[in-house]
Amino acid sequence: MGLHRNRSKAIRDFIPWTRVVAAGKTAYKDQTVDLLEYILANRQKLVLKPNDDSGDRDSYRGAELDDSAWERALKMATRSSYVVQEVVEPATASFPMNRGGQMEMQEMQIDVHPHSFLGRVNGCSTWLHAVGASKFSTIAGLAPTFILDGK
Fold first, then answer.
1. Domain range spanning residue 99?
2. Are residues 39 and 83 in the same domain?
3. Using only C-alpha atoms, what is the Rg of the chain?
4. Residue ending a domain, choose from 87, 104, 139
5. Exposure of 87 by Cβ count < 10 A (0-12 exposed, 13-18 middle, 19+ buried)?
6. Neighbours of 114 (CB within 10 A)
7. Cβ partners under 8 Å of residue 14, min gap 6
8. More reliable by pLDDT, 114 or 30
9. What is the pLDDT of residue 73?
10. Same domain, 105 and 72
11. Nearest CA-CA partner of 72 in 106, 101, 48, 96
12. What does the pLDDT read at residue 79?
């Protein structure tokens, strides 16, 4: 039971509020909301992301879209496998990089992408890319996701 509780706390502490995009009620903080209505009304603080990182579907950041583009993105997300996630400041850390046989440290942005199966978030993958680089930087890639226990 302790491991499950530690994992749940780590997820709450480090993974932004995330839900599978689907019609229905859900919890947001201490209230119950209609998920699709909530997404429409709160685009400034939300992002729609594909459930898998296959590369052929885009993410949609609500703050970068107008109301009609956000509504179109939401309609598309309800027909595909998408999650909605609360936007948070990006996490960064230094990672070792091999450049021409030389090891150097590079500041990288860390994005955690949740994955759901049968309507539940069951795991995640972590994507690294150079701070300030576009989505298509050559210095980017998947990295293992770890939840470290203090024992």
1. 89-151
2. yes
3. 17
4. 87
5. middle
6. 19
7. 112
8. 30
9. 96
10. no
11. 48
12. 92
